[in-house]
Amino acid sequence: MDWNNQRVLVTGGASFIGSHLVDALVERGAKVTVIDDLSSGRRENLSDHLNKRRITFLERDLREQGVAEEAVKGMNIVFHLAADHGGRGYVDLHQAACATNLMLDGLVFRACCKAGVDKVVYASSGCVYPNHLQTDPKELLYLDEAKVGPPYDADNMYGWAKLMAEMTLRAYYQDWGMKSACCRYFTVYGPRGVENHAVIAMIARAFVKQNPFVLWGTGEQIRNWTYIDDIVRGTILAAERIEDGTAVNLGTTERIRVIDAAREVLRCLGHDAPIELHPEMPTGPYNRVADNSLAKELLGWEPQVMFMDGLHRTIDWYVATRKQDEVASILSTMLTERIEQVEQLRAVPVSRD
Ligand SMILES: NC(=O)c1ccc[n+]([C@@H]2O[C@H](COP(=O)([O-])OP(=O)(O)OC[C@H]3O[C@@H](n4cnc5c(N)ncnc54)[C@H](O)[C@@H]3O)[C@@H](O)[C@H]2O)c1
Fold first, then answer.
1. Which residues of 98-110 are buried (b: 16+ CB within 10 A; e: fewer)?
2. Which among 9, 161, 235, 336 is least surrounded, fewest beta carbons within 10 Å?
3. What integer pLDDT is reported at residue 275 of this predicted model?
4. pTM for the full model?
5. What distance in angstroms lies between residue 287's CA and the mean position of ligand 1's atoms?
6. Is 314 part of a structural domain of the chain?
7. What is the whole-number distance in angstroms between the Cα of residue 316 and the centre of ligand 1?
8. Backbone phi, then psi, for 243, in 5-degree steps?
9. Best of 42, 61, 85, 340 to mutate for ligand 1, by most ligand atoms within 8 A of CB?
10. pLDDT in tens, 107-128
């Protein structure tokens, strides 16, 4: 597909994933507009494009009346990434906030349909998979797309909203012909990631020399962290090759025990502290790894970055861009909140009495 001069909207484009997607679309010659209310996104993620006037940036809340309609007008393709979302601590502890995604997604999709947008590409999640399948870390389980089905059992309100959005897009295609693709991202990490997600949280804890080093869960939980460059490539391929709302996993099949990732982070950062396990803290499912054969078949996509390589790149980026005292001051809040809340915390000095 020729992206040159395609009019593309990226909702949530100031986010970690959104900003990398914007980089790739700009590089392909697309005319990119970003809409983001900066509730968890950061303007600095887009600063190079903004300084060089390569993109249009709208700082707006898509849930406000008329905003989605205005934003999607004249767009060929809409990548919908805006969401009330944080990492595990956030999605476990903020059900009502995550429920607003039902409205957010509904407004954006309806506006796209009314405006005749050619295609919507949706940032879905591994959180649509049934919780009850993912309880035994010893089981050699790979979640293929067909495992999302009755009895539905999504991961918190966040996961239910992602599932409802996928279903909405399939219905819009079947009944009204609106083309779309859904990408189920699995635990994405890489530069510009934030501390409310596990990999960056582990790096941050080691970076500030936390002692003992705290790890949520038993450490036995299995994840398939997927590097940002692979996610962006898969998302663009989905835009090019899927149109009937099909949901496709974008995730590696590497089975990483969280405790092993933590040990590697400690080793790389030269921090020799005991690991203190906290199974009572938000942990998520104990066995979440994608089957990615559908992405291979439909998109010709395979992940290219192995976890150890991606982890080392992410640690290098973190160390080069962060200051210890600043990380220490925000870390405990960031584990369960979003940037918005951290900014509020900075604005209102907390009484220590
Ligand atoms: N990071 C992951 O591991 C992961 C995994 C699965 C799915 N996803 C999805 O990918 C997308 C991007 O996630 P991310 O981790 O890069 O960062 P994120 O979740 O912080 O991104 C959401 C972006 O949307 C913006 N936003 C939120 N509400 C908005 C509103 N009402 N109006 C306008 N903008 C709004 C935020 O400021 C932020 O920039 C999200 O949809 C997320 O659910 C992420």
1. bbebbebbbbbbb
2. 336
3. 98
4. 0.96
5. 23
6. yes
7. 24
8. -135, -10
9. 85
10. 999 999 999 999 999 999 999 9
Domain presence at residue 66: yes
91 Cβ closer than 6 Å to some ligand 1 atom = no
Q: So what's the pLDDT on residue 243? A: 98
Q: Binning pLDDT at 50, 70 and 90, where does residue 337 land?
A: confident
Report whether residue 37 contacts ligand 1, using a CB cutoff of 6 Å.
yes
Return d(Cα 128, Cα 163) in angstroms, integer: 5
Residue 65 structural domain: 7-347
Structurally, how many domains does the chain consist of? 1
Tell me which of 10, 43, 81 to substitute to probe ligand 1's pocket, judged by most ligand atoms within 8 Å of the beta carbon: 81
**What's the gap in Å between 15 CA and the centre of ligand 1?**
6
Is 73 within the bounds of a domain? Answer: yes
Angle, helices 307-321 vs 258-268, to 10°: value is: 50
> Per this entry, what is the length of the chain?
353
Q: Is residue 353 part of a domain?
A: no
What CATH code is carried by the domain that includes residue 139? 3.40.50.720
Give 29-68 pLDDT, tens digit per residue.
999 999 999 999 999 999 999 999 999 999 999 999 999 9
Helix ranges, 149-279 (H) = 156-176, 198-207, 228-241, 258-268
